[in-house]
Amino acid sequence: MAGTQSNSEVMHIEDRDFKHVSKETVAKLIQLSHEAKKQTYCPYSKFRVGAALLTLDNSVHTGCNVENACYNLGMCAERNVIAKAVSEGHRRFKAIAIASDMSDQFISPCGGCRQFMREFGSNWDVYLSKPDGSYMKMTVEELLPVSFGPEDLTKKKVSYIPNNN
Asked: In degrees rounded to 5, what are phi and psi of residue 49?
């Protein structure tokens, strides 16, 4: 397994089975998500979050949250890492690990990040972790049940919508 690399490098993890992510890979993803949170820019909330994303071709991308003085312009770690992977040509993902400094509960993605993850499918793994390395495994579907996704845009719609002006 490759060692630590710069932010622009991509690490490959050997795990050929799409439906199964090995315990070793999960542990490495969680470790990388904790390392990624060290790069966080969070001068306002002081709430560090890191993420490590495993793509379908087994490459791993990392990301962290980046805050902004105009609060709503801040970016969560999950959205940052997905956007980073998409910008490198990836569209399908196996798993994401998320890390924070909360020791009393597992970190959970916000609603916006859940919807952002859902854009790329509902049947992939999300590992919610604690600083001690313990984790809880969920799927995007479990985090965002009865969700709205890209396929909903192609469903049949009413043919006439009255103008109520």
From this structure: -135, 135
DSSP SS3 for 3: coil
Q: What tokens were used for 147? A: 């969700």
* pLDDT of 19: 59
Under a CB-based contact definition with an 8 Å cutoff, are residues 110 and 143 in contact? no
> Tokens representing 65?
């949250």
Q: What is the pTM of this model?
A: 0.85
Q: What is the DSSP string of 24-78?
A: HHHHHHHHHHHHHGGG-B-TTT---EEEEEEETTSEEEEEE-B--SSGGG-B-HH
- Using a pLDDT cut of 70, give the percent of the chain over it: 88
Averaged confidence pLDDT in the chain: 89
Alpha carbon of 113 to those of 2, 65, 80, 129, 159: distances in Å? 28, 12, 10, 16, 33
User: Which amino acid appears at position 22 of this protein?
Assistant: S
Tell me which of 35, 78, 88, 119 is the catalytic residue.
Answer: 78
Burial of 94 (0-12, 13-18, 19+ CB in 10 A): buried
Known catalytic residue at 67? no
Separation of alpha carbons 11 and 88, rounded Å = 13
